Fold:
Amino acid sequence: MPAPVHDLPLRLLSPENRLTKVSVWQRARECAAEMDRASRRTPFDAEAFCRAANRGALVLAMAGDLAESERSCRRQARVLLSLVRRGLLPRAETVRVLQPWINLGRLRVIRGDWEGALPHFPSPQGLHEAGVFAEGPGPDHGLTPDEAEDVLGSESGRAFVTNTHVVETAKALARGRRADLLAAHVSRWKGTAGALPHVREASALLALRGGARLPEIPQGTVPTLAGTAVEIHAASADGSRTDSLLRCLDILVKGAPSADLVAVLRAGAEVLRSRGRAEDGARILHRTADHCRALRDEAELFAVLSELDGLEPASEAGREARALAADSGYAFVRARAGEPPLPPAAHVPRLAVLITAEREAESRTTPVRETT
Structure:
């Protein structure tokens, strides 16, 4: 019988098009340039600006400046709301205002405030009362009821709100180890959003927590990332599933590199190590490191090399990890390598370009109010 999993894992592993963690400095430079180009175009390029602004806010968070990352999210929302309300962007673009609001919730999860994050992941039914960027009275603050309807009025907008609510809420509840709330959440959405891999993964975790044994992946079946995520949890609870997990990882590791693949391979290698299969875990990690190099994923490569250094102290993994950390902008890399934290982003020129680009975009797109 498998051992019950009394504590939920902090991180759900289902694929979600994770962003590759390339050099902070490179990402900041590219995002700042793209925001500048997008805000100068006529008409304003909302898609390019939002993509760059969202990634820029993530860069600021990963560099350790969560306060500036939050300010970045708010600047992005002000730009978009101003343009939509002045008729310079179609009302259909209102849905983009939700992304920085969602990102604020993700930042709260990172800080450990999973309860404070939940209002940032509203359901379609709760969007009107969600208080999206509601910082004061009047139409300049937050979405109006009509704007909320603009978001929900399209099939794509409603699907975005639904999927985000289901996935991000599940992740936050797992981070908070609230199995009771996660069970209620899964029960509510299993019928309408059961196709989302996070719902299936959460259901599997809850079953394992109750001592159930999950169906095994038949030999000869080509594993998926979502299926292997569940197999990782099953093997962590039941040592007899270790061989099945290894079969899945050996097949997946031959696939095309992606940040989602790296997340699953790392977690799988950790389970192998915990089950006394350190040699197999190291072999998977070596291939994972190759994927990280192909993706130019600096942060994940550092993490993989650090794990390999613990398994193979005589290898070159530790030396390569230290070389990566020497000029890394990632806060967790610097901390693990014993490097001092970075100053606030405004005092780091290679990060301050993001703040400058956003402020200039806001100045170009927000009308100056006349004074009497």
